[in-house]
Amino acid sequence: MVRASTQEIAAFVAAEFPQTPVQILEVGPMSARVVHEVGTAELRPGGTVSGPVMMATADVALYVAILAQIGIVPLAVTTSLSFNFMRKPAGDRRIVGECKLLKLGRTLAVGEVTLYSEGLPEPVAHAVGTYAIPPDAQAPRRG
Amino acid sequence: MVRASTQEIAAFVAAEFPQTPVQILEVGPMSARVVHEVGTAELRPGGTVSGPVMMATADVALYVAILAQIGIVPLAVTTSLSFNFMRKPAGDRRIVGECKLLKLGRTLAVGEVTLYSEGLPEPVAHAVGTYAIPPDAQAPRRG
Amino acid sequence: MVRASTQEIAAFVAAEFPQTPVQILEVGPMSARVVHEVGTAELRPGGTVSGPVMMATADVALYVAILAQIGIVPLAVTTSLSFNFMRKPAGDRRIVGECKLLKLGRTLAVGEVTLYSEGLPEPVAHAVGTYAIPPDAQAPRRG
Amino acid sequence: MVRASTQEIAAFVAAEFPQTPVQILEVGPMSARVVHEVGTAELRPGGTVSGPVMMATADVALYVAILAQIGIVPLAVTTSLSFNFMRKPAGDRRIVGECKLLKLGRTLAVGEVTLYSEGLPEPVAHAVGTYAIPPDAQAPRRG
Question: Does a structural domain hold residue D11?
């Protein structure tokens, strides 16, 4: 039961965050998958992907998973985001973020995001984040 | 490929931590499941389970999952443990912790633990923890 | 400007949490200092203090610092608590928790707690926690 | 007792991370202060500063504080970084990160970073991070 489709959320994100290098791959029940382009600007010395790229990916993945559940609510804000960095990301692969929501309450959402170098099996990082949802902001059910 | 069985780890934990109220339910590849008894001492006003019970459960779940992979290494120590509390636990059910290791390096292990009131589907809390493994402490492979 | 005194909060905590081994040392503006007794039950093999003792100490320190600011609000609940364990605590000293609130919003409080073995200068652990404050629960100003 | 000066670290950072928008303001014993420029690229809709800017600032602040203590060790890597976002940053002010190291061990450093909109008293975010220091990598004492 999803209240906003991948296309609706992608259109919203493209309009609101025109500069974002993160694209939505898919949304599902309490889940989302996004990808961050990796070019010269995203690399660190040693050919690895920078931490801020991980943060942008995790943050958007959480936001998209929440929007898919509650509908387009522009006012939700990140209140915490915690990362464990586990492996050096490949410099020539995009970063994929897979989000799974653990809780979607009326005013607080909690989710985890596992981050991969695209196509490789072992996660490069893991994040847990919380979003505050403005009271009464949940969109009316479509239909 | 597990280097210590549920029974071996249970025997080690019982000998080293005779007072622990946490029991091991099972271990698997990069995973473990444990349970914490809940009695009067574990309750808080309002009939909910205390935060320290969650911490004990998560910490043992991680430790057991690591021991199962690397063998009995008494010197591994927790370096971080982060919790999100999501739902009020039931006061009359044990707390179950399901650990999944995200990384098992030579000197650092990272894992997540989802905590449940036994028999209920929605997690009450989620934890992410790291353990420092002493260099060269990994037990020789059995057999 | 504190809305509940050390004595008022101590009386509330003693009534609500009669079993707690944590005592309040003092409260101040956006701050609190508490202490956890350490006896046989709080020790781990090797003579160190258990992680759950740290959690109980940090949680009460945060709660007390919040109560001091907003007045006696029994319904505030911990939503996250993150620990870094830095040094082995002494087995024969109490654990002191010093809390400093970083934010006290209408519905969310954030604070950090530095944990010490009493009388020793180097912290044994550091925690950051968040509390959800029920809307409209802030006590009327005294006086 | 600092083993690398602000100038030495700034020269190292400029050479290794030529694209970084973070500048070092000062280093001290177990501490550092850095600043992140804020221009159009760092803004989010609504005129606020993006989360990745906070992460870049916190990460560099920690790295610089560690380098100041142990000397120029290019191989130290971030292993965890946790954020609480507390207030909306001003869109027209730089982000300042003030780092205080809580522990500097042989292989692990832990520090906290308080993030401000430059010139404003209330923190916009708070971070806690850990760095793994390669064994035997600590630079020989200067002099």
Answer: yes
